[in-house]
Design goal:
By secondary structure, this protein is an alpha+beta fold. It has seven helices and five strands.
């Protein structure tokens, strides 16, 4: 017991010495973003922008599978039958769609006990409106230059 306390205190001194050393300075001041900067940043999900053709297998899969729970094929078919009142003749016809969505990174797959399970992969995109405004301003400036150039010719 006493030996453990001694070792812990010695190791603790080394960690404190690293914190005090000039080689690993910590930032004392935290730079906070102003309200305007926070207002211009938006975070959107990729799934908000994806639109599948209605009443297709990809549309059914995207509406039935969620982000929070792993769902196996029997549960997927049950949910599709319950929500859309559709049964597929070939049970395996959904696998290519799931495989494609998994390969491009929109869904995650998991194999537990030989049974595949899927869920949506939550992908977030951060959009800054300031950058968009700069791009719009540069496009407007380029368009304003074109008529001047044409008049000069």
């Amino acid at each position: 017991m006493v030996f453990k306390k001694i070792v812990r205190s010695i190791i603790g001194l080394f960690h404190k010495a690293d914190d005090w050393s000039a080689e690993s300075p910590k930032k004392v001041y935290k730079v906070e973003k102003t309200r305007e900067e926070r207002r211009f940043e938006e975070i959107h999900g990729v799934w908000d922008y994806l639109k599948f053709k209605a009443n297709t297998q990809a549309y059914h899969l995207s509406n039935v599978i969620g982000f929070d729970e792993w769902v196996d094929m029997t549960e997927i078919r049950r949910r599709i039958k319950e929500l859309f009142r559709v049964e597929y003749k070939n049970e395996r016809s959904l696998y290519p769609y799931l495989k494609t969505l998994t390969d491009i990174g929109l869904m995650e797959s998991n194999s537990i006990g030989g049974r595949m399970q899927w869920r949506k992969h939550d992908l977030a995109v951060k959009i800054s409106k300031k950058e968009e405004e700069k791009q719009v301003a540069s496009i407007k400036a380029a368009l304003a230059k074109k008529p001047r150039e044409e008049e000069e010719k």
